[in-house]
């Protein structure tokens, strides 16, 4: 029975409509000439050396010329199907018609110790085919990084704790302990380079600031006067010169003692009476005094005992009273006086907003800068035998610093400059790329003689910080 539509029969016996497709011509197999790689020495190339008939016992290779049986390059097609149709798997393999040589793919590159080419790949390898030697796939490009099981890159050290899904330690990008211990916070503050650590010598000292040349000249003059007075008294018997020298020596000694005891108060009075400068009109390199409101910089501080946050300067001092048979707080501690046993003072860079012009300047007091603070400290706690167990916070504070808490009469004082406080700063103005800064002066600034207070010449070293009442809680919000 004929039909208007053409049809044909498949190999499996089914009839389908349409004309049969013409048979396609198979593409000729592609072959390439493999370039053998000897690695510098053919006799050490393993199976490759056998292709050139090299005697491994002799260093003389075979003479060049045509090979007796040149290797053939054939392209073999392998496939499998079932029923009437199936998928055809194709693979191109290059083989040499050399006796004893296995069916391998020849490629240029270094060879391993067995004479076989080293497989290099930067990605997943293909699945080997049945009945044929699996050919290695070479891909170019950098190797991907070895990622954790989650595939996320995290920063921070590998901390101990639960394992992840792959059995390795879990990585985290921050500390696990959020609260942290007080000792770790104090250790991090000590190791921070942005924090300037001040010692007891960084405060005001009359004998350290008084000119050394003038001091030793006065001492030499009195020694010579004593020698001359004693000589005249022994030779002539006239004691007038000796009396004059003794009186002058007593007056000068009293003047030095007065300056040593009340020199700090005189310098504070000098700072308060020094006129304030306006930052808007201050010149580069000019020594000025600026009064304004404090703002914290990048590294705020916290007071040691009371834990006052957002500070730019902190000071905690422990004093002990020495009686007749009490222990000394330091090597120079005298009896029936208060002696300094421990002191912690820190300062960092901060900003100050001028009261007059409203400009904001960066005060460079961190990173080891020279600073002389005049910040009043207030008494926090007094400890004696009767109440030494009433303050566990104070006992803990002593234990963290390895200080004994035996039968001593102690007093803890603390001072700080917190954000929003009103302070006075003395230093040198420096303008750098439209950034206004106050830096320490290169040389100490002399105060001169203050005759109305009977004060001898002194000097101001570094940046001067002055805060009248650090414990005032009525600060200006910033």
TrEMBL record:
PANTHER family: OSJNBA0035M09.9 PROTEIN, UBIQUITIN-SPECIFIC PROTEASE FAMILY C19-RELATED PROTEIN. Residues 1-14, 131-141 have a biased composition (Polar residues). Residues 1-182 are annotated as: Disordered. Signal peptide: none annotated. This is Ubiquitin-specific protease family C19-related protein. The chain crosses the membrane at residues 213-234, 240-262. Residues 41-58 have a biased composition (Basic and acidic residues). Keywords: Membrane, Transmembrane, Transmembrane helix. The keyword Transmembrane applies. It comes from the Eukaryota. It comes from Lactuca sativa (Garden lettuce). Residues 76-87 have a biased composition (Gly residues).
